[in-house]
Every structure is written in structure tokens, then in C-alpha cells.
Amino acid sequence: MNKRVLIITYYWPPAGGGGVQRWLKFAKYLPQFGYTPIIFTPENADYPVLDESLLSEVPEEAMVVRHPIWEPYRAFRSLASGGDKGVSAGFIRHKKKEGLTTKIAQWVRGNMIIPDARRFWVSPSVDFLQRWLEANPVDVIVSTGPPHSMHLIARKLCKLTGIPWLADFRDPWVNMDNVEKFKMTPTARSLHARLERKVLCDANAVVTVSWHLSAEYEKIRGRTVGVITNGFDHTDFTQLTATASSSFVIGHYGTFGEDRNPRTLWNVLDEMVRENASFARDLKLELIGPTDISVLEAAQKTAFRDSIEYVPYMKHDEALQRMKSASVLTVILNQNANEEGRVTGKIFEYVACEIPVLGIGSVTSDCARVINDTGVGRMIAFDDATAMKKYLLDVYEKKFKLESNAHSRAMKYSRKELTRNLADQFNQLLQGNN
Predict the structure, then answer these.
(1) For residues 111 and 182, what is the distance between their CA atoms, to the nearest angstrom?
(2) 347-383 core/surface letters (b: 16 or more CB in 10 A; e: else)
(3) Which residues does 382 contact at the CB level (< 8 Å), separation at least 6?
């Protein structure tokens, strides 16, 4: 008989976007490794995007337990945007300048609502789950963040019930992306750090998605922090076929924030279309996903502006089809303190497409490690225009080829194999708890 694992997550279908994929796929494969997933998630969450198609991926074995949530994020977003959706939940700007209300709202978010806007769900969830678990026992508790309030629910439950707990960090906490926008006071930052330390030290096991973040958290925890990266689900790609096109499609899929704006790439492409009439005729730039106005404006000031297609949001299966039909897939790292440990979820789906990848960012980053490990492309520094131009020309002229064993090298990042690693973590956790 399978053991039971309670997974506390804010993001769950019909939520769309990258945050839902990790545990949706773990839940899909966990029954094959002896664990039945029980998902605890909000009943009326304020998701920034919806993707109803993901509901079909929830496995039959999974039990989904929903509980109402009150969250101030709706009001915060209204205030932050000045009523016109100027700033999204992911800090994607749709207008050029942030107004005073935006700055005030961001300050309130960083200094008054700690650790995040879902903190008001913590106590009601603990009360509910403590009663629920008396009639529905589980073997393991998992929390996944952000939002990191999910960890606070699990921490209290673990103390009350003694059920072993694994904390999963998909992103950093104190050193989160866009942290500078919150203008945290030293007091607020100290509160975040104290909560982060409590979670890291009290959890029976901790895993995260990158090697650099693991090393950072091991220093705080004083014990091992496992690495289970994001990955790709091979079943998502079995029915995909590349659509024939005469265009040379350079694609970016997913959130495209201001701190990823690849100005050197835009300059390189501008130069290439001015120099090469054939390249200019063939080029198409696909930007699929929420994109900051600064990125769009920079790209639209170039000679290739008429070759740009921008789609603010696309269902996951449709986005995969676009990826599979592209000529070059771009992954661009945030230009901030998290760059070295930033491994975006889409890089693994890029790997599965078996199409040349252009990475832009630190060549010593964990993302570069994945690209090099799988042989699917190159990571090039943000300002290395010469290397970018050469790589793009090599792909365009079909001089660049994926390494022959790229497929087999990629399989360690399949969702099924990663779930096997997760189940091993659970097994070790339970053995240590006996």
C-alpha cells in the first residue's frame, strides 16, 4: 500500500504559469514510487494567470483538499497598478513609469506583509489541517514556496503532529528576485531572515532547485540541502512535431522582466539584419509570455521590429508546440545577485525540444551547468556581442549541431527521474523518523 504525502502549495490548477508545474508533475509520478499525493491548496486563490487545460493533468490518485483563503493581494495589485494593471504579480510593467501608489504598495508588501501576502492563510490552515489529519493520517508533509507562508503552515503542523516535514524552495526567500523593489528596512529584512532560518533549521529535510542555492542554504542550516532541479515531462513532447517554416525563429517563452532585458542581443540582431538581407527576411522573434514594457520598447527600436510577435500569455501545451517549432530557444538570466543560482524551469523544456539553446548570462551559473551538461547549446555572457553573433550565424547557417548524445544526457532531468529522487528523499526521511 502506498504511503501518503500531504503537499501544501499555493499554486495548483487552474493556476497557470511556471509555479504550478513542479508539484503537478511530482504528483503525477509519485504513485509509481509508492506515494499517494494529497494536495492542500486555496479554494479561491488570486492567481495572476489561469490555465484550465492543466486540470486534466491532475492524476486520478491525487486527493485535492481546498480551504478558503483571504489575501490582500487583490487590493495590493489594484493599489500597485493605480487601477490600470500597470504592475503585475510578477512585477511586469505595462506602463513606462511606476507611480507613487506603486512605490508605496511595494514598500508595504516588503515591510508590512511578512513573509508574503498569503500569511493570513497560515493560522486558519493549521487549525483546519490539524483536525483533518486526525481522520486522514499522512506519512510525510511537504511545503513548497514561494509563497513562503506555505512553509510556516508546515512548520506548525510538524510541531503539533510530529509528522516528518520536507521543505521545498523553488526560489530564494530573503534574496528573492525583485527584492530591491520592496525597499526593505533592516528590521523587515531581519524578520524575513529569521523566518527563513527557522524553516531551514526546523524542517526534517530541505530540497531546492539549484546547486548555488543549496550551498547558500547549507551554510544557514548546517546540514545537507538536497538538489532536485525542475525538469521536463517526456509525455508532454510525445505528440509534438515541429511545424515547417521558412522563418528563422528565435523564441523566448515565459516571463520576461526588466532585469533580463538583453540589450546586447537586440544590438546584435539589429546589426545582423542590416548586414544580411537573407537573415533580415527570415528572422522572426517570438516573445511568448508576460513581457515588461522596457523589453518591448528596446526591441521595437531596432531594424527587426516588424519581425516581432508578442503574445502575453499562452496555454502550456500551445507554448510547447511553439518551442518545438523554433530555430533557437533563448533563456536569459536575471541580472541580479541570484544570477548564479537561477535555473529557470523553461530551460529543461528547451532541453527536451532538442533545439539549439542560446543562454545569456553568467557562464559559471547553474543554468550554464545544465546547458553544458546536456550539450544543447551555449551560455554566453550578457555583453559578449561577438560570441552571440557567431553562435546565431552558426545556427542560421546550420553549422551548429546538438551533440549526438544530447537526448540521453537530458534524461536525468525528466520529471519521472526527478520524482524517483524525491521519493528517495521521503524514504530516507521516514527511515530517520523511525
Answers:
(1) 7
(2) bbbbbbbbbbbbbbbbbebbbbbbbeebbbbbbbbbe
(3) 262, 264, 335, 360, 361
Q: Tell the CATH topology of 3-70+114-231+414-433.
A: Rossmann fold (3.40.50)
CA atoms 184, 186, 192, 197: torsion sign:
positive
Rg (CA), the chain: 22
Fold agreement (3-70+114-231+414-433, 234-412): yes
Whole-model pTM: value is: 0.89
Superfamily for domain range 234-412: Glycogen Phosphorylase B; (3.40.50.2000)
Phi-psi region of 222 (alpha: psi -120 to 50; beta: other; left: phi over 0): left
How is the chain split into domains, by residue range? 3-70+114-231+414-433, 73-112, 234-412
Tens of pLDDT, residues 34-49? 999 999 999 989 888 8
Q: What is the pLDDT of residues 336-357, one digit of tens each?
A: 878 899 898 899 999 999 999 9
